[in-house]
């Protein structure tokens, strides 16, 4: 049994939301632009937005970065978000300076660990055609499709 169950397509959609959110998020609790706890999420979000558009998965603009490398970068970014408030003393200031970093960092690490590292295998053309024929046969057998329509569909597939 494998622990990785999140499909790459779901991961891609989440990446499209998390990257820009990280860039904009420090403005919500009014973190200083020059403070480490304000710079870290902006840097992680900006870098994540770039490599997400270059990763070899479904919603990518250009498939350059392999998925295992993408997942490793997600884990590193998540660890950076978790550790920055600890190392900079921001944890002493307030919960708003450490809790969002901790939550999003743990989420990033979790996504890296739970996402499948390979793309789903596409069906071959033959498998798709056989699947269409089987579906058509089932419709004919149940009487939901006339046999002359079935012949036309079979001729179109062949």
Structure write-up:
With 158 residues, this protein is mainly alpha-helical. The protein has 2 domains: 8-114; 125-157, no CATH class. Helices cover 65% and strands 0% of the residues. It contains 6 helices and no strands. Helix 2 (36-53) runs antiparallel to helix 3 (67-88) and helix 5 (125-142) packs antiparallel against helix 6. The chain starts with 7 loop residues before the first helix and ends with a helix. The model has no long low-confidence stretch (mean pLDDT 86).
List keywords for this structure.
158 residues; mainly alpha; 65% helix
Q: What general outline do the C-alpha atoms trace? A: elongated
Instruction: Please count the beta strands (DSSP E, at least 2 residues each).
Output: 0
What order do the SSEs take from the amino end to the carboxyl end, as H and E?
HHHHHH
Q: Would you tell me the overall average pLDDT?
A: 86
Please summarize the sheet with the most strands.
none
How many structurally independent domains? 2
- Roughly how many Å apart are the termini? 39 Å
**In DSSP terms, counting alpha (H) and pi (I) runs of 4 or more, how many helices?**
6
Unreliable runs: none
């Amino acid at each position: 049994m494998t622990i990785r169950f999140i499909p790459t397509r779901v991961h891609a959609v989440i990446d499209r939301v998390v990257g820009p959110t990280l860039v904009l998020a420090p403005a919500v609790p009014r973190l200083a632009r020059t403070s480490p706890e304000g710079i870290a999420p902006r840097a992680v979000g900006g870098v994540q937005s770039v490599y997400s558009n270059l990763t070899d998965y479904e919603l990518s603009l250009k498939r350059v970065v392999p998925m295992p490398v993408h997942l490793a970068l997600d884990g590193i970014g998540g660890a950076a978000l978790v550790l920055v408030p600890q190392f900079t003393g921001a944890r002493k200031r307030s919960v708003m300076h450490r809790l969002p970093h901790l939550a999003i960092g743990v989420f990033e690490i979790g996504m890296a660990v739970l996402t499948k590292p390979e793309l789903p295998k596409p069906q071959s053309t033959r498998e798709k055609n056989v699947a269409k024929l089987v579906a058509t046969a089932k419709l004919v057998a149940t009487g939901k499709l006339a046999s002359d329509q079935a012949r036309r569909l079979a001729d179109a597939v062949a």
